[in-house]
Amino acid sequence: MRANHKTAPRNASGQLRMHGLGLAVLAPMLVAPLLGLATLPASAQQYQTRDRVLAPAAALLPVALQNVTMVQGREVRLGHLFAGISDDRNSIIDHAPQPGERRIYTASHLYALAQQHGLDWRPNSPLDKVAIERASVVVPAEEIEREIRDALITQDRFEEIDVDLFNRSVQLHIATDRPMTMRVEQLSYDKRSQRFQATITAPANDPEAQSVQVTGRVYTLIDVPVLARAVLPGAVIQQSDVAWKKVRQASLAGNIVAQPEDIIGTVTRRPLAANRPLRSTDLKPNLLTTRGDRVTIVATTANMRLTATGIAMQNGAEGDLIQVTNTGSKKIIQGKVVGPNLVEVVTRGQVALN
Length: 354
Prior knowledge:
The protein is α+β, with helices and mostly antiparallel strands. It has helices at residues 2-34, 78-81, 107-116, 141-156; strands at residues 61-62, 64-65, 68-71, 75-77, 82-83, 92-95, 102-106, 119-120, 129-134, 136-138, 161-165, 173-175, 183-190, 195-202, 210-227, 242-248, 267-268, 283-284, 287-289, 294-300, 305-312, 316-317, 321-326, 332-339, 342-345.
């Protein structure tokens, strides 16, 4: 009986020690829910096994939280979340987000990672977090349009076309560590509506490529004469002033001047900018003679050249046929304007100025 009395306290002491050890093990688990903490995110669990052994308390590495980290590669490392991580402890703990996307690591995730990797860090608040972004660039809409245009020219044998996306705000991200390449897939074109649809994948031939669907319209381009430089009102257009430009045929109005010979030698009615199609209302003939002007009438044959004075009865540009009154004979004759106030009369065999 005495032996039994001595044994009981030892058993009670052993139970107390076991109970104390259980509390020590359970304490973090009980405190964690109060702080809003949880386990590692599912995306990081595959990296947990190889780093399972916790460092002893004396080896805990003091660290601080990062704020927002831009990840250049395909992995998230411990140093992306915590500042003060040495190179030898900068383990891979997760896959990086998709280009252009962001992932949030909450206080519970961060605390679990700190415990797993022997870091001296505890959350100050359940609101502690770190944002991880995958560094990327957005493909400009102009680049997508150029790829589609080239694909349409190859596929449908267009000569000169331009394309416009209907959804120009489309966001296609390419990671900064990947090549800036694209591939056009599932391209279709309706000739009746002149519309297309396609899938754009970037980077091309990359297992982690992103894809977006785009739609738009095709425009046929034609060459039209334009001014090579800006001009003021009253300027006479010379051949050196004319250049060519490709424009969308659908955008041209009915009064657009399509031939350079209809521009050269004319006079501008208003200030005109360079590289813009010209309308017939922008120009007027370059009059060398106006009605009522005193003109010189010239008649030329193989043997002689006669002149007389007359009054122009019509306006005339170079090459125009106008009527002129001979001031001497008062007769009305017809001649061609060949220069400023100079009218040439051409007769067959006989000169009739009188």
